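A student in our group prepared the protein record below, which I am reviewing. Thanks in advance; the entry in question is below.
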Amino acid sequence: MKALITGITGFVGKHLESFLRDKADVYGTSRSNRSKNHIFEVDLLSETKVTRLIEEIKPTHIFHLAGLSNVKDSWKQKADFIQANVIGTIHLLEAVRKVDNKIKVMTVGSSEEYGRIQGELDKVIEETALHPVSPYGISKCAVSMLVSLYHRSYGLNVVHARPFNHIGPGQRLGFVTSDFAYQIALINKGRIDDPVLRIGNLKTARDFTDVRDIVEAYYNIACFGIAGEAYNVCTGQGVYIQDILEKFLSYSNKKIELVVDPSKIRVAEIPKLVGGPEKLYKLTGWKPKRKLDDTLKDIYDYWINNL
């Protein structure tokens, strides 16, 4: 395998590069120059530059991770999210089509493509109708449709991963587990005088998977995924945000007051979003290995050690 990872310097990209180190020759793109020989400064909004890079590297597999991913931010930057996630993907697929349509491409979508589920489904599967309720969800829904279009129309060897909430040490702020752990770590290290934790809606349920398990799933999808298909990447277990918060609070040596922050509540909240991973399991045998409690402790320790 000769792998090209777009967005290699991001949260998931770093973990995927580490996972692939003994399995492939790895190259990557970044929006800024990182001064490493295997990482190229390429803006995916330039189809010409993307095409030249693919011609130069000649990858066998492309893991398309680059894009914008914060649901809340997408409400303020609607056009930016469409450009980065949709137009950037079109440029990548066009470049592959022109250079070598046999390259295996894996695009990354999101559980946000499903949006607000109709009825009382316990788990959503790949055939569940897509009803995105945020600009981010719409952008990723468009990516999944592009995968189908380019496979049917041009014969591209492209598959779509649809991960649910992925978490782990090193994730930036703006995501629920990092935000909780960061604030609690600040309080316990005495960095702030007021022991107050600002929270959003705790009554929602989500399907959380460790990023180190996620990247193993991506590798399996890139190797064995059927062109034109989408695959949920998740545990199949729903966990309430309230339970996540209580676990983090159990690590604290100080009493912390909880205060609801309206800015942390989404415009269009999805009460419950849990995935069914059976399609991926049947294809590859992949299952998450890490326990949620261990992942949450790793996240908290990361912030304690890096503040």
Summary: DSSP finds ten helices and 14 strands in the chain. The longest helix spans residues 78-99. The two ends are 38 Å apart (CA to CA). The chain has a mean pLDDT of 94.
